[in-house]
């Protein structure tokens, strides 16, 4: 990874990185990830191949940057969670908004990359990690008998599953309804006996 998410970049660097990210998102909306090439990305971004390699190791590195930028836009990326704690509900609301705002992009990506593809799994893993980091900071401050890592993993997985069901399953659910689902799932709708 050649970019450092914790370092403020110049406008020129940000513009170049954004051009490559836009090229990646445009390409993902048109074809499967495994058919995307660095040459094709450079043509779309209108930068030479050498410039691409100044900023990214390969197309996977650019993909990580794309997910990072989406998360950064919601103020939920790992570097942002270090600045303060969000409640689980606030974390959920921000991710819900991101998925809602980006639904057409995500659905176009899914059209070309099956739901069980490495690309979609990579996206889910990235945002599960981001949510995990945010939730864990909140859980660490609470007194529980269950290890905070286990609680954070459970919460992040539950949040992602709700969002997958809503956005990838194209169910029309308001934030209030989604928060009700989250509350019920995390508090245990099924009684163990």
UniProtKB/TrEMBL annotation:
Domain of life the protein comes from: Bacteria
- Give the GO molecular function terms: DNA binding
Q: Where is the HTH tetR-type domain?
A: 28-63
Keyword vocabulary terms for this entry: DNA-binding
Q: Which InterPro entries match?
A: Homeodomain-like_sf, HTH-type_Tx_Regulator, HTH_TetR
The protein here is known as: TetR/AcrR family transcriptional regulator
The record lists the organism as Candidatus Companilactobacillus pullicola
């Amino acid at each position: 990874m050649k970019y450092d998410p914790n370092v403020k970049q110049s406008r020129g660097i940000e513009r170049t990185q954004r051009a490559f990210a836009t090229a990646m998102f445009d390409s993902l909306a048109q074809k499967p990830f495994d058919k995307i090439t660095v040459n094709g990305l450079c043509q779309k971004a209108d930068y030479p191949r050498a410039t691409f390699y100044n900023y990214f190791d390969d197309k996977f590195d650019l993909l990580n940057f794309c997910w990072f930028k989406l998360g950064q836009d919601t103020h939920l990326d790992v570097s942002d969670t270090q600045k303060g704690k969000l409640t689980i509900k606030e974390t959920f609301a921000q991710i819900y908004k991101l998925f809602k705002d980006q639904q057409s992009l995500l659905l176009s990506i899914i059209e070309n990359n099956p739901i069980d593809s490495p690309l979609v799994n990579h996206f889910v893993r990235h945002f599960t990690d981001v949510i995990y980091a945010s939730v864990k900071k909140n859980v660490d401050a609470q007194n529980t008998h269950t290890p905070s890592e286990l609680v954070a993993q459970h919460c992040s997985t539950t949040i992602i599953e709700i969002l997958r069901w809503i956005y990838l399953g194209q169910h029309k659910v308001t934030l209030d309804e989604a928060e009700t689902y989250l509350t019920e799932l995390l508090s245990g709708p099924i009684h163990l006996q």
